[in-house]
Amino acid sequence: MSLLRAEAVTLGYGRTPVVHDVTLDITEGGVGLIGESGSGKTTLARAFLGLLTPMSGNILYGDRNLKKVDMKRFRADVQPVFQAESLDPRMRVGSSVAEALPRSARHRVPGLLEQVGLDPALASRRPHQLSGGQRQRVVIARALAVGPKLLILDEPTSALDVTVQARILDLLAGLPAERLLITHDLAVVGKLCRTSHVLFAGRVVESGPTAGLLERPAHPYTRALRDAVPRLGGEPPALRARPVTDEGTGTGCAFRPRCPMAVAECERAPALRDLAGHDGRRVACHRAEDVLREP
After folding, report:
1. Which residues pair with 59 in a beta bridge?
2. 51-94 pLDDT per residue, tens
3. How far is CA 68 from CA 4, 80, 176, 233, in A?
4. pTM (2 d.p.)
5. To 5 degrees, how large is the angle CA 81–CA 87–CA 88?
6. Which of 60, 175, 176, 202 is the most exposed place for a label (fewest CB within 10 A)?
């Protein structure tokens, strides 16, 4: 069952749409939103948090339109986890974690810090006295304070070194709350999400089970994201996205100016379709089957 669902959602700022006709579910097992900066991931997350009203389409919480949900209850059930820099530098750690708690429940702060692997004695410190990994754990503890059902995580490990990042991922994987993870890092989404959706230029271009999507991408953009991950040794990627020469506006596939497999047919915008022989996989690409055949 969906915790949150976007139904044909178009989002924008002013009159300019930046997310176009997106339909996707946030279900059990963790869901990833993958894409480069400007792809629409954070804009979509803002709509899921009730911070942005769709220009068209609906956001559903369970089976109810988000517009008709008790927002006080919703805010407790769905919590954002931002990057560590979101902590108020003037507040002590304990005060930041306790901010979402009623006064009668502030005795829970030490336990929340322990839950995320921190010494409760750190409650008296300010953010600048902590490491990056410790600050990120404080942000997670603050989100957990109200007992959420779903965490919406926006690049939660992007500013951390690899070893600290691994510890934070292990922590997140062990939490009882479900996850919507916004990231450009395919290694992170592979660790935390059963299902993933790839966004490009505000549209879902590929979706499905994360393991299969990362192992055998069916869209050239997904392939380019995967192959952009640094590797030691080995052959260079067979498909490499071309440099941006224009913004891909107008008709046709938005990725066409950068696509190494573009053909005349790509002047017609592809619809998101089921990928035959791959359960749960959907792709918006005329040449998806050809992409799959590439080594």
Report:
1. 6
2. 999 999 999 998 899 999 999 999 999 999 988 888 999 999 99
3. 14, 20, 27, 54
4. 0.89
5. 145
6. 176
